[in-house]
């Protein structure tokens, strides 16, 4: 399954296939059962991940006990908590597997060592991060500017697979609405479709 990672890396570098195989040779690939917590809120992250199969949820619980989902990571997406700007380096989020997952596991403690061993790897990683951060910035801007129904429609356009893979209450939290509101939005959007089918 590392072929998936290699094909993804090719988009960001001129490394040859052989060079990429060398880089990924020592990177562990692990299977995680549904429900596995990869990182608890308040812990200092030591690992980063790349999803080859499955879905990982990022969420936080506030002091009142309210749980808020902030992201879902699926196939060909990197999972990293960026917290180097904080003094304690503790994560504000938890990461858990919503499905049985196969993940590439990176060790953040040897990140610099990997960069030293493979010239050009740091530049490639930076391009990956810039792409991910750019997409997150665009998604957040669209989220702030849109109404709940528009958020759901954007989700249908960009990440339709989440509709059937994610529990509705978590999907509603991700969209910033209640599960009841999400149900109403779904019904409103389904009615025109049903009328067309009946006609």
UniProtKB/TrEMBL annotation:
Which UniProt key words apply to this protein? Activator
- Domain (Cyclic nucleotide-binding): give its ranges: 11-75
Q: Which InterPro entries match?
A: cNMP-bd_dom, cNMP-bd_dom_sf, RmlC-like_jellyroll, WH-like_DNA-bd_sf
Q: Tell me the superkingdom of the source.
A: Bacteria
Indicate what this protein is called per its UniProt record. Crp/Fnr family transcriptional regulator
Q: Which organism is it from?
A: Chengkuizengella axinellae
């Amino acid at each position: 399954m590392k072929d998936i990672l290699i094909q993804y890396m090719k988009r960001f570098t001129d490394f040859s296939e052989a060079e990429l195989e060398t880089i990924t040779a020592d990177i562990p690939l692990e299977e995680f059962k549904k429900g596995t917590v990869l990182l608890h809120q308040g812990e200092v992250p030591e690992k980063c991940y790349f999803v080859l199969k499955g879905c990982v949820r990022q969420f936080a619980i506030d002091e009142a006990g309210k749980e808020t989902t902030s992201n879902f990571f699926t196939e060909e997406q990197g999972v990293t908590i960026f917290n180097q700007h904080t003094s304690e380096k503790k994560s504000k989020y938890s990461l858990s597997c919503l499905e049985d997952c196969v993940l590439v596991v990176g060790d953040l403690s040897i990140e610099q060592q990997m960069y030293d061993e493979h010239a050009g790897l740091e530049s490639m990683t930076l391009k990956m991060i810039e792409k991910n951060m750019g997409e997150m910035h665009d998604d957040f801007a669209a989220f702030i500017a849109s109404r709940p129904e528009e958020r759901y429609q954007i989700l249908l356009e960009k990440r339709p697979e989440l509709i059937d893979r994610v529990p509705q209450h978590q999907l509603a939290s991700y969209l910033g609405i209640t599960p009841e509101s999400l149900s109403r939005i779904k019904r409103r959007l389904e009615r025109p479709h049903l009328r067309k089918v009946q006609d």
